[in-house]
Each structure stands twice: as C-alpha cells, then as structure tokens.
Design a protein that fits this description.
This protein is an all-alpha fold. It folds into two domains: 50 residues, no CATH class; 54 residues. It is built from three helices and no strands. α2 runs antiparallel to α3.
Length: 107
C-alpha cells in the first residue's frame, strides 16, 4: 500500500490505467470512491485498458444490472443440464449475480 503524499493516509490501488483527477474535482473523486466501493478499478495489462467504466452513479447501476442480465442468461443455459461440472458452473454464476446485487445495494 502506498501513502498519499499530501495527507499521509493509505491510498487505494486503482490500477495502472488510473488517471487521478485534479485535487479540486470533488465530484470526480466522489465518483471514483463509489466505483471503488463496488469493486471497479482500472486494472489491466496496460494494452487495452480496463474496459467500460461508467461515469455516473446511474450509469454504474445500469451497467451492473446489465451484467446481472448477462449472468442470468448464462445461468439459464446451464439450468438445462445436470452434470456435476454444470452444477459447479451454476454456483459460479449465482455467486457472481449475488455479488453484483450486493454491490448495487451499496449505491
């Protein structure tokens, strides 16, 4: 963990693709805090960037709900099959859906 050069508090690891807004951009910092609180940061290998990062709270909620829809689609496909590997996959997608629902409830 690194410390803030201004206040000395520990800083969050936002990833190598993170570009900090200016100190006076309070709304931008508040939005970054919101993103981090639900597990969104700017981690990637540096080649293609971190992917889509919503720039408003409403956009974030829409994005997370969209992911839930996609995950539910994956889960529906798996519900047609019953072997053990498919059961593990169902648990995986159900866990991802639950995590997103928890993150949305934090907003």
């Amino acid at each position: 963990m690194a410390k803030c050069p201004d206040c000395g508090e520990l800083m969050a690891d936002m990833g190598m693709d993170f570009e900090a807004p200016g100190k006076g951009k309070i709304k931008a910092w508040e939005h970054l805090r919101l993103l981090y609180s639900v597990g969104i940061a700017f981690h990637s290998c540096g080649c293609s960037g971190p992917g889509y990062v919503p720039n408003t709270k409403e956009g974030l909620i829409t994005h997370l709900n969209g992911l839930i829809t996609i995950y539910n689609g994956e889960l529906q496909q798996l519900r047609q099959e019953t072997n053990r590997e498919r059961e593990e996959a169902k648990g995986y997608w159900m866990g991802k859906i639950k995590l997103l629902e928890q993150r949305i409830s934090l907003l």
